[in-house]
Amino acid sequence: MLGEFINPYYLQIGSFILINIILAISIYVTLSSGQLSLGSAGFMGIGAYTSALLTIHFDLPILVGIIAGSLVAGICGIIVGLPSLRLSGVYLAIATLGFGEVMRVFFVNWESVTKGAVGLSGIPHIGRELLNFFRDAGFDPSSIGMRNNQFTYLLVLILLLLINIFIIWFFVRQNKSRVGRAFAAIKMDEKAAEAMGINITYYKVLSFTQGAILAGFAGALFAHVLAYISPADFAYHRAIEILIFAVFGGSEVILGAIFGATFMTIMPEALRFISEYRYMIYGLVLIFMMAFRPQGIIDENIMQWLKKKLPSKRGRSHGSRNQKHM
Amino acid sequence: MRQIGKKSLVLISALMLVLLAACGGNSSQSSGEGDKGGTINAKIGVISYLTGPGAAYGEAITNGFKLAQKEINEKGKVNIELVIEDSAGKQEQALSASQKLMSDDEIVALLGPTLSTEMNVVGPEADLNGIPIMGTSTTAEGIPQIGEYVFRNSIPEALAIPVAMEKAVKKYDVKKVALIYGNDDVFTKSGFDTMKEEVEKMDLEVVTTQTFQKGQSDYNAQLTKIKGLNPDLILASALYNEGAVIMDQARKMGITVPFVGGNGFNSPEVINIAGKAADGLFVATPWFSEKEDPKVQEFIKKYETEYGKKPDQFAAQAYDALYIMAEGLKNAGEADRDALRDALAEIKDLEGILGSFSFDKDGDVEMDPIVLTIKDGKFQIFE
Amino acid sequence: MLLEQLINGITLGSIYAIIALGFTLVFGVLGIINMAHGEIFMFGAFMGIIVTSTLKWPLWAAFLVAIAVTAILGYMLERFALRPLRGKQGVSHLAPLISTIGVSILLENISHHLFGAGNHPFRNSFAEINFQIGSITVYLVQIIIFVISIILMMALSYWLLRTKAGKALRATAENLETASILGVNTKKIIILTVIIASAMGGIAGILVGMAFNSVNPQMGLSMGLKGLAIIILGGMGNVKGAMAGGLILGLSETFVVAYGDSGYRDAIAFIIIIIILLVRPQGIFGQKSAAEGR
C-alpha cells in the first residue's frame, strides 16, 4: 500500500529542507542588494514566538499566526534596517549578529511571556491540525493505507512545497523586474546606482525587510512544525547555519541558496553513521569549499551554462538519435 | 567557462549521490523476531546527545545502556538490540532521529532523548505514533504528562530539591538564601523554579537572585554580589560542570556557606573539578556510588573496567532504564509496542541500582531520594 | 564591594582585551574577521591544562607550549583557510568569514574529542597566591592578567609603530599591492600577523584558565563573540581601542551584574555595539576613513 513507500523520516527531513530553503532565500534576498545580515536567526525567533504565542493564548488559526509572525518580523526588519543603512560589509554583519543575540537574551529573560529557557510547548502543529480537519471531514488516513504520522508529515511536506514554489517563483520574477535590477545595481556599486537615480534607501530597506519577513515566516513555520520552541533555537549557531546555506550553495543566484540549504540539511543526516565525526567533516567541507569554490557551488556561470546547455542538449540528443536511424 | 561548469556539475551530482547512498545505507538491518526458546527479541531505539557541548552526558548515558544490554542479553530471557542515534542536542535532529527509529517497525520502544527540550518535541510525536518512550535524564516539569506513551525514570527536580533544601535549612538554621541559576538552560531553569517555590513555602528570605549563561567562565561578579549580602545558604541550580566552577570561585572569594544543588549538580566530577572547594555541597539524588549494595558496587566495577572512568548518575539512570525496559518486555511476553506500554505502566517496586522503582499514574518516577553532602572531598550520606 | 567588583571587571576586561588584540591585528592587516580566533584561544587554554595538570611541568612551560601550539594553529589557519582565498577572482568578503567559521567548527569538535566536553580544572599553586586587604581577596593572577594585557598592548603598539617589521605590516595593511611593489614580503607579513594574533589568543587562554579555573571546548565561542563586539567598540584594527574596549566591556558586564540584572549580561556587549555603530560607526578610537573603506 501507499504507506509502505512513505517513510516519515524522509518526510521530516524534507520539511526541514523546505523550511531551511526559505531561510536561505531570506539571506539571499538581503545579499542581493549587497547587504550581509546575520540577523535571520533573530527575525526567525520573532516570527516563531509571535505566531506561537498568538495561537496558544488567543486560539487564533495557525494561518493567522504565521501571517502575524511574518508581519511583526517585517516591522522589526524596517526598524533595524533603517538605521543599519549607515553600515556595510562586516560592520553590518556584526551589528545584525548582535541584534540576534540581543533578541535571544530577550526571549530568555522575558519569562512571564516566553517562559524563558523552558520554552513554549503545546504549539499547534500544522500536520496534526490538518489531520483533525480531515478526520472531522470524515476522512481517515488508514483508508488509503497510511499511518497517522505518515499522513501528517506528508501533508506538511506538500504544504511546505507549495509555499516554497510560490516564494521561489516570486523572487525569480522579482529578480527580472525593476526591483531586482535595482538590487543588483546597488550591489555592484552603490554610488553609481544612486547617480542613476535609484532610491538607495528605499531599495536597501526593502530588501532587508523582505529578508526579515521571510525569516519570520520560516520561523513561524518552524514553530508549527516542531510544536515546541525555546530561545536556544534562535542563537548564534542558527544565524551561522543560515548564512552557510546561502554562501555554500552560491549567494549570487537563488538556485544556489536552494541547493545550499538542501545539501547542508541532508549532510549531517547522511553522516549519521559516523556521528562522532560529522561536525568535524562539516567544518572541513566549509574550509575546502571556500578554498576551491569561494563563490559557492552554483554561480552565474553554471546558471548560464545550464540555460544554454539544457535546451541545446535536448536538441542535439534528438539530432544524434535521428542520425543513427538514418 | 564551460569546462568549469561541467566539472562543478559532476562534483555536485557526485556529492549528492554519495549523500543519498549514505542516507539509505544503514537503515535496514534484520533481526530475528519472535520467540525462540522463550527469549524475547526486541530492538530498542536510543536517541542520545553524542556530539556537541553536552556530549559528555550522552556518552555516559549510552555507556550505561550498553553495559545493561550486555548483562541482560547474557541472562538470556530477553535479547535486546540497541539502535543508537545522535541528536547533537538539537530538537530538529532529535525529531529526525526519532522519526528514523519509529519508522522501523521492529523497534518497540525509544530511550532518550537526553535533554528535556528535545523530549518536548519528540515526546508528542512518539505518543501520536503509539511507541513507548522513556527519558533517562529529562527532569523538567511536565514531561511524563505529554502522553500515556511517555515515561521517565529520572527523578524530577521537583522531587529531589525540596528534600535537600529541607535538611540543609534545618541543619544550618537558615534564614536568608541567595539563588544562582543558569537562565538559558531548561534543566537549570526548571530546577530554579522548584527552588523558588520551595523557598516561598519555607518562608525564607531571598537576598538576591543571580543568573549565569552557558559557556560563561567568570562568575566573580555574581558571587561578589552574593558575598556582600551575606546569605546563610546558596541555592545553585546548575549542572555539575558550571556548578563546580561556581563553588571553586566562591570559596576562593571567601564564601564559606553551604550550597544546595539540584540533581544535575550530583557527579563525582564536582570533586574532580573543584577539589576542596566542593565541600559543603548538598544534593538529593537516588544515585550514591558509595552505597553498600553489592549491585551498585558491581555496576561501578564493571563500568570502570569497561569505560575507564567512574559512572555518574546519568550512566546509572540509563543502566536502570534498560532493566526497566527488559522487565516490561518480559511481562508483556512479546515485542509489541502497545503491550510493552501497558506492561511498563504496571511496573512496581523494581529493584535497581538506584533503589526501588515504580511508575506513578502519569509514567513519572516514584522514588525516595537520599541527601548527599560532600565532606573532606567525598560524597557522604547526610542524616 | 565596589572595589571588589572593580577588580573583577578589570580582570575580565583585560582578558577580553587580549582576545580582542588578536582579532584587531588580523582585521587591521587582512580586513578579515577571524571567526576561529575564539577556538584558537580555547586550544591555548587546554594546552595550559595539559602541561600543568597532566604533564606536571612548570607554568612557564605551559606558556611556551600554548604559544607554540596556537602559533602553529595560526599558521595552518592562514595556510589552509585564508591563503587559498587571497588574490582569487570573484571572492567576496563572505568567503574568509565562512572558511574561518569552518575552522572554528572543526577545532571545537576536535577538542571535544581530544579533551572531552566537560570542564577541566587548572591546578597550579601559582593561581592560589592571594593577598587579603580588609575583606577583599586579591589574587596575584588578577594583577598579572592586567599587567600582561598592558604589556602586550604596549609591545604591540611599539612594534607596529617603531620597528621595521611593524612598518611593513602597516604598509601591508594600508595597501597590499603597493606594499608588495615597494619590496615588502607581504606573504611573510600576513603569516606573521596571523601567527602573532593566534599566539596572543594562546596567552589569553592560559590566563583565563588560571583566573577562573575553568576550561571547556565551548569557551571559545562566547569569548570570540565578545572579542568581535570589542573590536567594533574600540575601532577596527585599532590596538589601543581594543584595550579600552575590552576594559569597558569587562567593567560594564560586571556592573550590570552588580547593580542591574545578571540575565542581561550577555546582551550588554551587543547593545553597546549597536549603539556605537549607529552613533559612531568607526568605533570610539577608530578613524573615519577606516569605516568608510569597508
Automatic annotation (TrEMBL), chain A:
<feature type="transmembrane region" description="Helical">
    <location>
        <begin position="242"/>
        <end position="267"/>
    </location>
</feature>
<feature type="transmembrane region" description="Helical">
    <location>
        <begin position="89"/>
        <end position="107"/>
    </location>
</feature>
<feature type="transmembrane region" description="Helical">
    <location>
        <begin position="279"/>
        <end position="298"/>
    </location>
</feature>
<feature type="transmembrane region" description="Helical">
    <location>
        <begin position="38"/>
        <end position="56"/>
    </location>
</feature>
<protein>
    <submittedName>
        <fullName>Branched-chain amino acid ABC transporter permease</fullName>
    </submittedName>
</protein>
<feature type="transmembrane region" description="Helical">
    <location>
        <begin position="12"/>
        <end position="31"/>
    </location>
</feature>
<feature type="transmembrane region" description="Helical">
    <location>
        <begin position="212"/>
        <end position="230"/>
    </location>
</feature>
<dbReference type="InterPro" id="IPR001851">
    <property type="entry name" value="ABC_transp_permease"/>
</dbReference>
<feature type="transmembrane region" description="Helical">
    <location>
        <begin position="62"/>
        <end position="82"/>
    </location>
</feature>
<dbReference type="GO" id="GO:0005886">
    <property type="term" value="C:plasma membrane"/>
</dbReference>
<keyword id="KW-1003">Cell membrane</keyword>
<feature type="transmembrane region" description="Helical">
    <location>
        <begin position="151"/>
        <end position="172"/>
    </location>
</feature>
<keyword id="KW-0812">Transmembrane</keyword>
<keyword id="KW-0472">Membrane</keyword>
<dbReference type="GO" id="GO:0015658">
    <property type="term" value="F:branched-chain amino acid transmembrane transporter activity"/>
</dbReference>
UniProtKB/TrEMBL annotation, chain B:
<keyword id="KW-0813">Transport</keyword>
<keyword id="KW-0732">Signal</keyword>
<dbReference type="InterPro" id="IPR028081">
    <property type="entry name" value="Leu-bd"/>
</dbReference>
<dbReference type="InterPro" id="IPR028082">
    <property type="entry name" value="Peripla_BP_I"/>
</dbReference>
<keyword id="KW-0029">Amino-acid transport</keyword>
<feature type="domain" description="Leucine-binding protein">
    <location>
        <begin position="43"/>
        <end position="377"/>
    </location>
</feature>
<dbReference type="Pfam" id="PF13458">
    <property type="entry name" value="Peripla_BP_6"/>
</dbReference>
<dbReference type="InterPro" id="IPR051010">
    <property type="entry name" value="BCAA_transport"/>
</dbReference>
<feature type="signal peptide">
    <location>
        <begin position="1"/>
        <end position="21"/>
    </location>
</feature>
<dbReference type="InterPro" id="IPR000709">
    <property type="entry name" value="Leu_Ile_Val-bd"/>
</dbReference>
<comment type="similarity">
    <text>Belongs to the leucine-binding protein family.</text>
</comment>
<protein>
    <submittedName>
        <fullName>Branched-chain amino acid ABC transporter substrate-binding protein</fullName>
    </submittedName>
</protein>
<dbReference type="GO" id="GO:0006865">
    <property type="term" value="P:amino acid transport"/>
</dbReference>
Automatic annotation (TrEMBL), chain C:
<feature type="transmembrane region" description="Helical">
    <location>
        <begin position="136"/>
        <end position="161"/>
    </location>
</feature>
<dbReference type="GO" id="GO:1903806">
    <property type="term" value="P:L-isoleucine import across plasma membrane"/>
</dbReference>
<feature type="transmembrane region" description="Helical">
    <location>
        <begin position="6"/>
        <end position="33"/>
    </location>
</feature>
<dbReference type="GO" id="GO:0015190">
    <property type="term" value="F:L-leucine transmembrane transporter activity"/>
</dbReference>
<dbReference type="InterPro" id="IPR001851">
    <property type="entry name" value="ABC_transp_permease"/>
</dbReference>
<dbReference type="GO" id="GO:0042941">
    <property type="term" value="P:D-alanine transmembrane transport"/>
</dbReference>
<dbReference type="GO" id="GO:0015188">
    <property type="term" value="F:L-isoleucine transmembrane transporter activity"/>
</dbReference>
<keyword id="KW-0472">Membrane</keyword>
<dbReference type="Pfam" id="PF02653">
    <property type="entry name" value="BPD_transp_2"/>
</dbReference>
<dbReference type="GO" id="GO:0005304">
    <property type="term" value="F:L-valine transmembrane transporter activity"/>
</dbReference>
<keyword id="KW-0997">Cell inner membrane</keyword>
<keyword id="KW-0029">Amino-acid transport</keyword>
<keyword id="KW-1133">Transmembrane helix</keyword>
<dbReference type="InterPro" id="IPR052157">
    <property type="entry name" value="BCAA_transport_permease"/>
</dbReference>
<protein>
    <submittedName>
        <fullName>Branched-chain amino acid ABC transporter permease</fullName>
    </submittedName>
</protein>
